[in-house]
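User: Quick sanity check before I run a bigger batch. Here is a single chain. Can you write out its predicted 3D structure?
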Amino acid sequence: GIEDIAKGRIAYASSEGASLEIKGPDAATGVLGRMTITDLDLPEAARVYGERAGAQAAAMKKLYGGFTLDAVAFTMADGPELKIARLSGQDFSARPTRESWAETAKVLASADNVEKASPAEQARVFGALADLFESMEVGLVEATGVEIAQPAGKDKGAGRIARIAYSGGAGKSS
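Assistant: Done. Predicted structure follows.
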């Protein structure tokens, strides 16, 4: 459900879960458990996603305060399975990229095999990726209960990580 909406800002939203299917050469299926997000600024998110950056980099603007995602599981067509018991984060801020986030996403999605691409195409893809990373900040992201496994009959590679976290730049968002 969604609670407390004012001027395009959502104080709290949740979903009990979802499933997904990715088709094509990197086919995969997945399920997502309960999801929550707090302090979501939809007008700012739309601006960041759709607008191009100006000549000078804009200040980072807070897009949401926090999120949680429980019981994530992905199975790739070629075998590996990834599970994450809980993924959470706080204080996500962003600004537009040079070509807009929408156009940056198109550039990244069109990169089939970067290793075999021309130097010009590699520069375009890696430049877009660097621009995207420079256009966002996160206060904290944490994943707990991470498991990677191969299906029966494949190599026996598997791994577990109890907790992994990243604490990012603070104090630059508004």
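The chain has three helices and nine strands.

User: Great, the batch can go ahead then.
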